[in-house]
Amino acid sequence: MGQADLVLRPRTRSEVQAMVRATARMGLPLVAQGGATGLVGGATAQRGEVLLSLKRLNQIRQLDTVGLSVTAEAGCILADLQRAAAEKNLLMPLSLAAEGSCTLGGNLATNAGGTQVLRWGNARDLCLGLEVVTADGDCWSDLDGLRKDHRGLNLRDLFIGSEGTLGIITAAVMKLAPAPRSRMAAWVTLDSLAQALDLLCSARTVLGDALSGFEVMGEAAQTLIAPLPLPVAPWAVLLELSSPRDEAPVREDLVAWLGQMLERAWVREACVSHSLAQFQAFWALRESIPGAQTRAGGNLKHDISLPLRCIPQFVHECEAALAQHFPGARPVVFGHLGDGNLHYNIAPPEGQTLATFSAQEPLINRVIFDLVAKHQGSFSAEHGIGRLRAEELAHRGNSTGLALMHRIKRALDPQNRLNPGRVLLASRPDGP
Hints:
This protein is an alpha+beta fold. The chain has 16 helices and 17 strands. It is globular, with a radius of gyration of 22 Å.
């Protein structure tokens, strides 16, 4: 909760509206918070700010098994929504490492991604409607769940990803899907990222829509979580298949395709899960990387996205640049290769503490983000902007785009009370 002067904990949308109006009358800045799992300081209140915790808004209002949707409040924990869907033999496709504590409102406010973006898209792609309390305490609601609806401007997408700076999401309608009849994973080792891209292209062609996840882990990331299903290699891929077909034919397709990849020498070794327990164990290893990094002493985190074709060259150039300017710095690279999102984290040299190493963070960021820009990527893929990357956005953002963002912010929050200092720095004159 940071250093908030006051914490408000509403139970209903009406209470949210009353609290927003009361703080507006007093001119108090208001910071909305869900599960507090963010990594960029977007929902951490500072002194002089009021924290609005949405955890008590945690009701599932409707689960529509015909329309394949769930209407739920912002404080619902993602894992609880997944379980509620599973009880009806349905799938809540959004899946994150923090799903046991992150909340729906925060997922939408940051347009969360996660491990299933390759198949299902980000939170934005799964959202059919929102309920939002505006800066002046009014409510805009679009919870009818229509799949086709073109009544003017798309306000829903304006609030999704705005990190609480334009309005406070209090409820949403999210898409569900029939639960897959079969789910399996394969752990594959390779010599290079270029091979990983070849493997991805082949998997998309041969395995089709059954391919629902494609994660990559560099050697340093693998070492942190060993022992593994296969020996540590320069690169490892964890891929997932989920299908409405029976397990046996899906497994046959996967094994046959992996056999072809081995014959072509595109992969070193491959291991396929043969039970739900093994499937879950494979994913538990991948999702344990962030915790393993913390236990190893921590690192400087960079959440980046790049055009797929550029990723191998970027990683090669970045490793060389870091070795030149910061000898001993250790890249720990892993992430959602299927959608071009890498977590490019930098651990200190052996024997150096993170506290000492952090003094070089601005220079390290410049090296990494300059190369990201060179390859037409983004310095913020799924973690958001918050406070941590607000200066980066101001420095690297398109001037016209930034001017439009500031205009929208002033129009919807003219007093700059909602999450001030997050995403956009102090209001500026309109640009060109």
